């Protein structure tokens, strides 16, 4: 990759990011100038009312969508400077993804799903690291199983292992516990927490769930496409208070503007 390297201690950085969908009457300003550092080795949650821009922000940070203006810097590389091919390489080698719906390949075993990012990149697996990841998520006895032969919680743990196995600079998790019962969700969150504490992984998670966000080092709140607040190591109760206040403000705004 021949892209300019920007010095930043952050694993990812957004600088005055805007995203506008549509035009004229139907224009929607999903991001209205977001500037944000996502610190390396931290577990960060992004929260906010429905429509506040969480998914849009995450997609722009994860190089899955292009901002209308502003910059995204991942691991020192400014994404706007990259060709489509280099963006694909960056997504594959430096970014891990965990989705609400697991997104595993149904015809592949757990082992093959976990190793898929490395197979696609033509990279050889580091056996010791693979073993450490598999043991941490507790999947040793499930490696030969296909997704249909596993519970939702087990499938999401496969997805977590798949995100970690290539040692990405940052993992983006979109509602990773949204489809899980509370016990399986707690397992996945505990695993994500361990991967930050023990492996120094950087994780950014979009969630509506105050319990999930209470596992994080930092919770960032969005409203109307802008960062409006953040909390360090908050309790579930503090998070709920903030969310309730933001939702009440969002309803008030809609009433005032007649939207
Ligand atoms: N492809 C699109 N075309 C037009 N508008 C869009 C598109 N994607 C998102 N939007 C709009 O941008 C705004 C932000 O959407 P976004 O999905 O980022 O919010 P969110 O906070 O993730 O919401 P939710 O919690 O409901 O998933 C919303 O008003 C949404 O309707």
Automatic annotation (TrEMBL):
Superkingdom classification of source: Bacteria
InterPro entries: AAA+_ATPase (IPR003593), ABC_transporter-like_ATP-bd (IPR003439), ABC_transpr_LolD-like (IPR015854), MacB-like_ATP-bd (IPR017911), P-loop_NTPase (IPR027417)
Keyword RNA-binding applies: no
GO CC, one annotated term: plasma membrane
Every ABC transporter domain range: 12-249
One family name in Pfam for this protein: ABC_tran
Keyword field: ATP-binding, Nucleotide-binding, Transport
Entry GO MF terms: ATP binding; ATP hydrolysis activity; transmembrane transporter activity
PANTHER family in alphabetical order: ABC TRANSPORTER RELATED, IMPORT ATP-BINDING PROTEIN
Name the UniProt record assigns to this protein: ABC transporter ATP-binding protein
